Amino acid sequence: MTEAVVRKKPGMVSVKEMPVLQDGPPPGGFPPVRYARRIPNKGPSAVAIFLTAFGAFSWGMYQVGKGNKIRRELKEEKYAARRAILPMLQAEEDERFVKEWKKYLEEEARIMKDVPGWKVGESVYHSGKWVPPATGELRPDVW
């Protein structure tokens, strides 16, 4: 396709004869370009956002404090119940221990009856200190 057909000017021999077509601004010019920072003018202010966040945080911390107080009261109630029942549990354990200790001494007497000079229930350690009995021997049901 020749330039003559493209530009609709028949009879042109050279490109130099072509009329110059240059793009330009529209009549009246281009609209102004906005290059400033676009800050939205809608929505809550920074102070309102801060106060809302602070209020939500404060309310949450208040709820945490209330929960801690309730949990502390429940914990104290549980400990009070344990303190109240502890003497009874200790008495039962002492009763069981005395019964097992008597069985233990009878068994020791039966086993060591032929050993001269053996004293039933006497400690084999002569350190002068009291040593609590080994409860593992007295509680075969645990092992």
Protein architecture, described:
Helices cover 52% and strands 0% of the residues. It has helices spanning 3-6, 46-111, 135-138. The chain has 3 helices and no strands. The protein has 143 residues and is mostly helical.
Number of helices: 3
Number of strands: 0
The helix-strand sequence is HHH
* Low-confidence residue ranges: none
Principal-axes shape call: elongated
Secondary structural class: mainly alpha
- Note the gap between the termini: 107 Å
- Strand fraction equals under 5%
Q: What would the average pLDDT be, to the nearest integer? A: 84
- Helix percent reads 40-55%
Characterize the largest beta sheet: strand count, sense, and whether it forms a barrel: none
Radius of gyration: 51 Å
Function: Complex I functions in the transfer of electrons from NADH to the respiratory chain. Accessory subunit of the mitochondrial membrane respiratory chain NADH dehydrogenase (Complex I), that is believed not to be involved in catalysis.
Family: Belongs to the complex I NDUFA13 subunit family.
Main location: mitochondrion
Membrane topology: Single-pass membrane protein
Produce a short descriptive summary.
The protein has helices at 3-6, 46-111, 135-138.
List keywords for this structure.
single chain; 143 residues; mainly alpha
SSE topology:
Layout lengths: L2 H4 L39 H66 L23 H4 L5
